[in-house]
Each structure stands twice: as structure tokens, then as C-alpha cells.
Amino acid sequence: MVLSRQVKNIARWSVHLVLIAFGIIWIYPFVWMISSSFKTNSEYISKGYSFLPEKFQFANYARAWETANFSTYFVNTVLVSVFVVAIVVAVCAMTGYVLGRYRFPGRMLFMSVITATLFMPKGYTIIPIYFLINTLGLNNTLAGVILAEVGGAHVLFILLFTAHFSGIPKELEEAAEMDGSGFIRTFVQIMMPLSKPILATTCILQFMWSWNSFLLPLIFTLSKPELRTLGVGMYQFVGEHSVDWTGMAAAASISLLPIIAIFIAFQRYFVEGVAGSVKG
């Protein structure tokens, strides 16, 4: 019995040590980027693998924020990400609600079609999206970037909402109908509050994707650099004959702060949403 307990303890600690090692390897690039953001370019090149800089260069952050016009890019990215998340959540939640709660002709065909779009490379849709946005007269505008970002099926979020809503007891809807609640009121006041974990998961993932988006903001802001987002704004640090590596590291560190804050704020709901979807 004692030997068996010792073996279990050794196995448990071995698993912990392996997980700690993987955690250190996983977080190393992030720590290295933060450290590099405080170095000079010469120190970055000559001593790139050292963690602590010889002297902390806080001017890198000032250069990233002001010289590279990141203050404007930051505001643009916030506007694009917030509107994209709001639209995607609304559309995917309503689509998932209908697919999860109602049975209608063509339902399975519709789900099969949108699921098939997962296998379509995103680059193939750039041309029709560009022509559509250009026809609407929204090229080189933030509205055009937002519409381009919200385009597509967002299959993952639709399936998450569908699975979640399909598991809610039907008695809730029947009770709401008896109280005189209509379709919209039932969806907004009853179903949406019950889907906080899925809402948090959708918000976090879509916010991360929109915040780090590069291709679509680049295409739709080519003629207006002042409308660029942070991902595209990284080009400011790439010159014709040189690259400002430490300025880029500082800019990347700045751009990560909102994502970290959002994840910390909603991590409990995010874990519940992922765990619930896996269980379902």
C-alpha cells in the first residue's frame, strides 16, 4: 500500500515537472519578446538570447507609440475589433439559436454547406469580398474593413451556439410563451443570458482574430495608411535596408496588452464554454 502510494506520488510529480517544462517552453517566446523590447538594436542582434538587457530602453515604447503612429493604429484596431465582435456574436447567436431550437426543411443541408466552408482557404474569398466592398463604395474605410472581417460563415461559433441552445430544456421556451413572450424577447432575455460561456468564448476568440488580422486590413487600407490596424502597422518598422527589431518588439508588446486583459476578464466563462462544448 505504501509502495503504491509512493509510485502514485512519483508519477504525479513527474507529470507536474513535464507540464512545467512545457509551460516554460511555451512562454519563452513571449518573455523573450518583452525582454527584447527593452534592448537596443545592436544588443538585440549581438545578444539576442539573453533575457535581461544591459540597460532598459523605455524609449522603444515611446518610439513605437509616437514615431510609428501606433496611437492611431491602436484606436483603429479597437474600433474594428469591437464592431466585428459585436456583429459576429449577434449573427452567430441568432443563427445558432434557429439551428439548435427549430427543425425546418433544408436545415441539415445548410449546416453541411457552412461546415464545408471550413475547408476553403481564406485567400480564395479575397477577390469577391474586395469587389463587393468596392461596389458598396467602402474601400479605404474602416467600415469596409469591418464588413470584410465579419464576412464568412464563422462556422465554429455557429456550431458552438447550436450545440448550446439545443441542450436547453424546451420547457423554458414554453413557459415564456405562456407569459406572452415573443420570439425576440425569448431569445434576448432568456436564451442569451443562459449562454454566457459561449458568448465569452466567441468574444475572446473573435477579438483575438480581429485584433491580429493582417490580410484584410492591409488590402482595404492600401490608399489610406492612417486607417491601418496594429497588425498592418508593423510594416512601419521595416525599412528599405534595415529593420527596427526592438521597436517592433515594443509594438508587439503593446498590441498584446488588450488581448491579455480581455482573456483575464473572461477566462472563467471561456473555460466553461470550451469545457461545455467538449462535453456536449
Overview of the molecule:
The protein is mostly helical and 280 residues long. It is built from 14 helices and no strands. α4 (70-101) packs parallel to α7 (142-150). The longest helix has 35 residues, at 2-36. It is globular. The two termini are 38 Å apart. It holds the Pfam family BPD_transp_1.
Question: Which features characterize this protein?
Answer:
mainly alpha, 14 helices, 0% strand, globular, transmembrane helix, Carbohydrate ABC transporter permease, MetI-like
What would you say about this model in short?
The chain has 280 residues and is mainly alpha-helical.
The average pLDDT score comes to 82
Tell me how many strands there are. 0
Uncertain parts: none
The ordered string of helix (H) and strand (E) elements is HHHHHHHHHHHHHH
What is the CA–CA distance across the termini? 38 Å
Which sheet architecture does the biggest sheet show?
none
Topology overview:
Elements (H helix, E strand, L loop, with lengths): L1 H35 L4 H6 L12 H9 L2 H32 L5 H10 L9 H10 L6 H9 L4 H12 L3 H9 L4 H9 L4 H16 L3 H5 L10 H4 L11 H35 L1
Helix pairs in contact: 3-14, 4-7, 4-8, 4-11, 11-14
